[in-house]
Each structure stands twice: as structure tokens, then as C-alpha cells.
Write a structure and sequence with these properties.
The protein is of the alpha+beta class. It is built from 10 helices and 14 strands. It has 2 domains: about 110 residues, Phosphorylase Kinase, domain 1 (2-Layer Sandwich); about 180 residues, Alpha-Beta Complex (Aminoglycoside 3'-phosphotransferase, Chain: A, domain 2). The strands form 4 sheets. Strands 1-2-3-4-7-6 form a 6-stranded antiparallel sheet, covered by helices on one side.
Length: about 300
């Protein structure tokens, strides 16, 4: 979807790795709104390029006539993976009050693929304030209960979104302990790690301030947000739930923080409790556990560093 330098032209026709149901959708769309007008025939001049789709899906940019689309596919998708993504993108987009943050619209989804608007994006700092304003809009969408009406995916991991009125219970049971148990079952953390986590969770209410159950992106590392040449921000690949908004802010610091202008602007729109930066490791323990579960021992060091103060 997103980086010119990552593209490689694959063919001058629809790539045979694109599922047939997507091709059928493209044909139907072009018959209705193609260059020949309503009732026209599908164009044979489709240009397909391989683009970066993250570590999970195979992705393509498809240009046909005046339309440019982004297609993600997976040969063995997880159950409802793309249906959940489409629903999540829609929920985020409907929460926005500003036009400075863009969430792509889903045009088609099936078990094996999702088709969304293609947005030309860039890296840089110009969109930081736009992202902050839009994210504050999303976080102001609150509910009484934490969780969501269905489970969602963070990467390849199914998130337990069973509802709870208690944010501490939700974060402890549905996030940290849920993943820690999965990691323990795979021998990726030790019994001592589990005991240290239990001590951390006993102190959770003294570490994390009370917060409402806000709509959250859920996987807001720097690879899931971009800018456009017009200065707008773009969000992709959500892992939504109603959760603590500070957890979203913390995730922006997983692999290098966003520009300081982002945090300053967000605080202008909705100030966070003092000391939020000191709470970042506790929130991000969830993501480090998830990376450890998905990718293995290279992420064990990050998990153990967060748990170290709670050992012994």
C-alpha cells in the first residue's frame, strides 16, 4: 500500500495470486463504473504491483483505469481475519471528527482477501499533529465496558475481548495473563517470569490511573501509521477493543517514538495523567509478549527487562 521503494512490478494483467473472488469483484466494479461507463466490459489493462503488506499478508497495488486499489491476501487466513479488519477500520473511521486523519474504506472483503482504497503515503514528521488530533477523536468514543463484541487479532494472535466493567481486570486477565500463559505453554517464559508478572499485577491499580474504556487502535506501533503528501495521517491494521487510551500512546514507543509534536498535540486535545511515560513499559509488556509468542526468543529480553523489578 505504502512505499514506492518497496514496489516491484509483477505483471500487466491481474496477478494469478489474487483470489478469484477479488477478480470477480473487480470485474463487477468495472462493469458498473469502468471507463466505458455503466454496462461496460472489464478492462484487461490492469497493472499489479507487489507492495509491502506487513509480516502477515501478501499485498498488491492494483491500477485499473482511473482506480487504484490496495489488496491484501493470505493463503491460509485465520478465521474471519479480514471480516474483523473491515469491521475495525469502519469503526475507527466512524469515530473521527477531523478530516486530518484518514482510515481507508473497505471496498470488498472475503475469507481470503480484503480490498481497500489505495492511499499514497510517506514517512516523516509532518503528519504527527494530525495523527494526534484524530487519535484523540477515536479515544473519545467510550463505553461502560472494556473489551468488544467479538475477539480481534493483534498480528496473528487472537485477542480475548470478553467484556468487563473493570479496566484492571481486563488488562490483567484478557491481555497480560492471557498472553503470558500462551508463552509459558510454549516454554518461552519461565515459572519465575510468571511469578514476577503476578506481582506486577498485584500492584497494577497503584501503577495505572483510572481511565474510561476508550475505543483504541490496539496495535499503534510506528509501522501502522503514515503521513500523506498533503499533511494528513493514515491509520491501518487495527486490533481494536475498548481499552485504556494510554496503552495506544505507549504502543507508539515500541520501536522508536513518534515525533514529540505528536505527544504535545495529543495532550492539548486530551491531557494524560502525569507520569504517563513511566507507565509505558507496563502497557507495552502486552506487545512484547505477543512478539515473543509469534516470533520467538529475540523478544524474551524485552519481556524480562520489564519484569525484573518484580522478581524476588
Amino acid at each position: 500500500m505504502l512505499h514506492r521503494f518497496q514496489r516491484q512490478i509483477m505483471a500487466q494483467h491481474t496477478d494469478d495470486r489474487i483470489p478469484q473472488e477479488v477478480i470477480d469483484f473487480l470485474d463487477s466494479r468495472e462493469r458498473a463504473f469502468g471507463r466505458g461507463g455503466r454496462g461496460g466490459k472489464p478492462t484487461s489493462n490492469r497493472r499489479v504491483e507487489s507492495v509491502n503488506g506487513g509480516s502477515i499478508s501478501t499485498a498488491f497495488k492494483l491500477t485499473s483505469g482511473t482506480s487504484t486499489l490496495f489488496i491484501k491476501t493470505h493463503a491460509e487466513p485465520l478465521p474471519d481475519m479480514y471480516a474483523i479488519e473491515a469491521e475495525s477500520l469502519d469503526l475507527l473511521r466512524r469515530a473521527l471528527k477531523t478530516e486530518r486523519l484518514v482510515v481507508p474504506e473497505t471496498l470488498f472483503q472475503s475469507e481470503n482477501a480484503i480490498v481497500i482504497d489505495y492511499i499514497e503515503t510517506i514517512r516523516g514528521e509532518a503528519h504527527a499533529e494530525a495523527l494526534a488530533e484524530g487519535l484523540a477523536d477515536i479515544h473519545r468514543e467510550t463505553q461502560v465496558e472494556f473489551g468488544y463484541s467479538r475477539n480481534t487479532y493483534c498480528g496473528l494472535t487472537l485477542q480475548d475481548n470478553t467484556r468487563s466493567r473493570d479496566g484492571y481486570e481486563f488488562f490483567a486477565e484478557r491481555r497480560l495473563l492471557h498472553l503470558a500463559r500462551l508463552c509459558y505453554d510454549e516454554s518461552r517464559i519461565s515459572r519465575q517470569d510468571m511469578k514476577a508478572l503476578e506481582k506486577l499485577l498485584q500492584r497494577l491499580s497503584s501503577i495505572i490511573p483510572q481511565q474510561p474504556a476508550s475505543l483504541t487502535h490496539g496495535d499503534l506501533w510506528t509501522g501502522n501509521q503514515f503521513g500523506t503528501t498533503g499533511g494528513r495521517a493514515v491509520l491501518i491494521d487495527p486490533a481494536i477493543a475498548y481499552a485504556w487510551r494510554e496503552a495506544d500512546i505507549a504502543a507508539t514507543m515500541l520501536f522508536g517514538a513518534l515525533p514529540e509534536a505528536f505527544y504535545a498535540r495529543y495532550n492539548d486535545y486530551w491531557p494524560m495523567e502525569a507520569g504517563w511515560r513511566q507507565r509505558v513499559p507496563v502497557y507495552n509488556l502486552y506487545h512484547w509478549l505477543n512478539h515473543l509468542l509469534m516470533f520467538g526468543n529475540p523478544y524474551a529480553t524485552a519481556v524480562q527487562a520489564i519484569l525484573k523489578p518484580y522478581r524476588g
